[in-house]
Amino acid sequence: MADEQANPEKAAAALDEARRELESLTYTVAHDLRAPLRTIEGFARALSEDCGDELDADGRRYLQHVLDASQRMSGMLEGLLSLARIQRAECHPTPVEVSVIARGILDRLRAAEPERAVEVAVAESIAAEADPTLLAAALEALLQNAWKFTRGREPARIEVGVQAGTPPVYFVRDNGAGFDMRYAGKLFGAFQRLHSEREFEGVGIGLAAAHRIIRRHGGRIWARAEPDQGASFHFTLKEGPAA
């Protein structure tokens, strides 16, 4: 310990090695748990389909709990694998047209739920220096978040823009459910939720993924919101200002 305190570079290298080992373990465990989980879900579904009529109401309810829990756990494992892939992916910044990426994502969200009335405003010619694949994944997480939490608004509004500065500050803003800023510290942790599953679906991975991607670029991400007054997520792709 004394040697590491006297040698910050050695301490940083040891910490980085420990982080990589933890990420590798997480990936391996999440990957290997998928097979037994599929077995549990498969037999539970077969039991429900083949023998459901022979079970009483309690038996059918218990079996449904098994299926629901299996599906939730499957989503969590896929989330862990997604986070691990982000950490492992190469990051090669190039000039990126943020406006084009954002419009493409919003077009897909509209196509999936054409019945929703959502007002969209994407600023023209937003440019960035970022890895195109990783930045697209971060924007997708932020826009899916905005799309989800504006459900029930008439009309919903989602805005994508940039504030000039050094570095520029990009943002995704909505008029959705918002949240209490006292809990903002939980936003970017894996599986952290500020709303119940009954209100909004999801396992709490999207914002954690966006956070990791922004960190990979050397930037920062933060949020501002009020309950029932919408939320805005701001990020930089280089060392940014304090929130």
Which terms summarize this structure?
single chain; 243 residues; alpha+beta; Helix Hairpins; Heat Shock Protein 90; 2 domains; five-stranded mixed sheet; two-stranded antiparallel sheet; 6 helices; 15% strand; globular
Descriptive overview:
The protein has 243 residues and is an alpha+beta fold. It has two domains: 2-88, Helix Hairpins; 94-235, Heat Shock Protein 90 (2-Layer Sandwich). Helices cover 51% and strands 15% of the residues. It has helices at residues 2-6, 8-51, 57-88, 98-112, 132-149, 206-216, and strands spanning 94-97, 118-122, 127-130, 156-163, 169-174, 221-225, 231-235. The strands form two sheets. Strands 2-4-5-7-6 form a five-stranded mixed sheet. A two-stranded antiparallel ribbon has the order 1-3. Strand 4 (156-163) and strand 5 (169-174) form a beta hairpin. Helix 2 packs antiparallel against helix 3 (57-88). The longest helix has 44 residues, at 8-51. The two termini are 34 Å apart. The relative contact order is 0.11. The model has no long low-confidence stretch (mean pLDDT 84).
Question: What is the element layout, followed by pairings?
Answer:
Elements: H1 2-6, H2 8-51, H3 57-88, E1 94-97, H4 98-112, E2 118-122, E3 127-130, H5 132-149, E4 156-163, E5 169-174, H6 206-216, E6 221-225, E7 231-235
Parallel strand pairs: 2-4
Antiparallel strand pairs: 1-3, 4-5, 5-7, 6-7
**In total, how many beta strands?**
7
How many structurally independent domains?
A: 2
For the sheet with most strands, the description reads: 5 strands, mixed
The secondary-structure class comes to alpha+beta
What do the pLDDT scores average to?
A: 84
Q: Name the helicity range.
A: 40-55%
Low-confidence stretches: none
Order of helices and strands: HHHEHEEHEEHEE
Fourth CATH level, the homologous superfamily of the largest domain: Histidine kinase-like ATPase, C-terminal domain
Please tell me the CATH architecture of the largest domain by its name.
2-Layer Sandwich
Tell me the number of helical segments per DSSP (H or I, 4 or more residues long).
6
